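Hi everyone, sorry if this is the wrong subforum. Our group has a chain we'd like a structural model of before ordering constructs, and none of us has done structure prediction before. Sequence below.
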Amino acid sequence: MAKGKSTVFFCRECGYESPKWMGQCPGCREWNTFVEEPAAGKAGGSAVGRPSGRAVQPVTLSKVEMSGQQRYSSGISELDRVLGGGIVPGSLVLVGGDPGIGKSTLLLQMCRNLAAFGRKVLYISGEESLQQIRLRAQRVGDFTENLLLLCETNLDDIAEVLKREKPEVTIIDSIQTMYSETVASAPGSVSQVRQATGVFLQLAKSSENTIFLVGHMTKEGVVAGPRVLEHMVDTVLYFEGDRQAAYRILRGVKNRFGSTNEIGVFEMRKEGLAEVQNPSEYMLNGKPEGASGSVVACSVEGTRPILVEIQALICKTGFGLPRRTAAGADLNRVNLLMAVLEKRAGINLSSCDAYINIAGGVRMNEPAIDLGIVLAVVSSFREVPISDKTICFGEVGLSGEVRAVSMALQRVQEAAKLGFERCILPKVCMTENMKCTGMEMIGVSNVREAIAYIK
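Answer:
Right subforum, don't worry. Here is the predicted structure as tokens:
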């Protein structure tokens, strides 16, 4: 760096540091992500060759002692499912989501349950006063004396409190409000967020204290601050859903202690977030009867089959270029499936507008819903409704073939519980065990065979 220069440039995505501005980041290859911030002052010599007060020795894997304390429940089964079975002591968890979607409410409900279980919990807020937290807590329920509240944003003061109180669970609401006096930049900047996360990471790993960080979201739908923030934490949870709707979906994006395929479904009520134990039944509420362009498909999130309603509206375009819109599904995947229908099934969709929607606002990316999208498009195009007691699932390839999907038996069993009588599925997925479900099983090998059942 040039002598006397007091600022450096950081990449918002990966945290790459440069003495000058660059259009493209050499680290993550993203464009226009560099921001200028004050350079941190020297805090002593280099870490390499620095004398240490203790000898650091590596150990073999067999000599590593396992702690007797394993996971423990948060008191919210849907949250435990996304976390991989419960809270891991000493872990660092990031919870992100749009403002007002329910991040603080969910964590406050978790604090109430943990305090009732006898665990010591510390809730640190940098955005609300103690009175505001109590007003919100009155909606959630009664709290025990094991819950401690603190309104502070200084990292040094927070670290002293954590070392003195030694809580088992700590909530930081939010990470963008925390600041360190050793970093000469405003709270919420790249340097401050990275510094604060590093401090909480050390505090969590040096004790059995599990720390939950609340992160704000940007317009692009990612956590505000450097992308390195997600790399530092153990688990990243995202809240999805429309603030105006009653449902909320908690999805795991990263989890060092479990699967990232699980989701938790919640319903926003006056008293807080309520768990939805049967998401399939909840997603199908209000489904129209006898309407064309509507079909029920089955997707799997982790180990849980979820039935969703796929809606399609196909109409003649009034412009030279047809319009294609998809809500809840990948638009590129929808365009691909419509091209397969034109090429392999002879259905002319090039002069039609197409609107695809997954009811309930949930977003599904599993290929198993391909067959549902295809049948919904054909049903709307021909103005022929599909039976309300029919369910379908299967991946569609470019040759028009219907390919196998995982957990076919569990999908059929979930549909049988909700009263469905007929299932259209890939022929290669049909087994003898499916006959005991009492449903009519229709195996198809390509889209032409599947479309033939729309009458």
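For your construct planning: The radius of gyration is 26 Å. The chain has a mean pLDDT of 87.
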